[in-house]
Amino acid sequence: MSLALEEILQLPGLHELSVRAGARSLHRRVRWPYVAENEGIAEWVMGGELVFVTGINHPRGEANLLSLIEDGAAVGIAGMVILTGDSFIQVIPPAVIARAEQLGLPLIEQPYALKMVVVTHLIGTALVQTSQARRSRNDILGQLLTGDYPSLAIARQRAAHLQLVLDEPRRLLALRLTGVDDVFEQHGLVVGERTWQATRQALEDQLEAWCRQHPGSVTAQLPGDLFVVLLTDTRDLHEALAALYRQLQAATGELQLYMGLSGLADDCAHYRQALNEARQALDVARHLRPANGYCNFSELGVLRLLQGIFDRTLIDDFVSRTLGPLLSPGRKHAHALVHTLDALLMENGNGFKAAQRLGLHRNTVNQRILRIEQLSGQSLDDPLFRMNASVALLIWRMSEDHGKE
Prior knowledge:
Helix 8 links the parallel strand 11 and strand 12. 51% of the residues lie in helices and 14% in strands. The protein is built from 14 helices and 12 strands. It folds into 3 domains: 3-123, 3-Layer(aba) Sandwich (Udp-n-acetylmuramoylalanyl-d-glutamate--2,6- Diaminopimelate Ligase, Chain: A, domain 1), CATH 3.40.1390.20; 169-304, Reverse transcriptase/Diguanylate cyclase domain (Alpha-Beta Plaits, 2-Layer Sandwich), CATH 3.30.70.270; 309-399, PucR C-terminal helix-turn-helix domain (Arc Repressor Mutant, subunit A, Orthogonal Bundle), CATH 1.10.10.2840. A 5-stranded mixed beta sheet has the order 2-7-6-5-4. It has a 5-stranded mixed beta sheet with strand order 9-10-8-11-12. The chain has a two-stranded antiparallel ribbon with strand order 1-3. The longest helix has 34 residues, at 180-213. The chain is elongated and about 85 Å long. Pfam families: GGDEF_2, HTH_30, PucR. It comes from Pseudomonas oryzicola. Belongs to the CdaR family. Residues 168-299 form the GGDEF domain.
């Protein structure tokens, strides 16, 4: 049961709440509201609370407010609301705002004229409604993803009632954190459990925030350690997922994150197959460790065979022997010959089309072809070399973050 702070601020009746600091962290999810009556809050909160500070039952000078900010950030509250007015806390001290901004803790100002009972009632009601809707959503998606539904027609009707659009082409992204055992072994059960749960929650929050920014995307919660996101198949999907991976990496700490993308599912009747595909792509990603963090099932092909090679050095050696002579470390266009070889293979050896793909003159491509054959000692007319080069390039693109030169 949770709502993002940015969702709470958009609730009807709460427009008078204003963000004073920590706007970059408004994706944090609120589990419940908590009114702070004691001098400190460290021993009274567990993380995820939206803490309200009134000053009614305890003086709240600058020093105390700074202490509350420090405690709140340390225990992981979602944010802090300070009530201001003539009677108790007249203004929020600039030092408190600056420290909250520095810590990335959302700090919200509420005028005393906006009654606390109204605010907490609106938030509490929204949390309950959100919880009910999310349970129903996860129930429907879980049934469709596992194929364990009594009636596809009823599942579709329930989805429509919850405004879930499921009968359009979608891809499925499966995500998994690895290294959990190492965290428990290194830190022990107590700290390990806290680290694991905090990382998991941070990942869920980031995914929910990402989905709100990408219309048509929706998370699905399944039992176990697998995270699932349904995606609209947009033109820039691959770039968006690479950016998502970089964003999520910042929240995983000691754990490693891998992702697998399914092929296109025409409608919700094919979600079970899509989940199976995403799992297979995820397994390959864990083995080959692509630079962009994920593997696409539609592009696996021979990679599924390479997954069976447990000694990664054999794969790296194959790529080095095949492409190594074409690399020019230290030069401005170190990968020019490799990119040219890639374009030629994509265009079935057609130099004219490869030149168009690269935005180069045909003579430049011809010169590079000669250079490729000289350095590699191979002919582009040799089908075995083309096959080896295609496989090596596929691994190379996954293993390194190479830009076009």
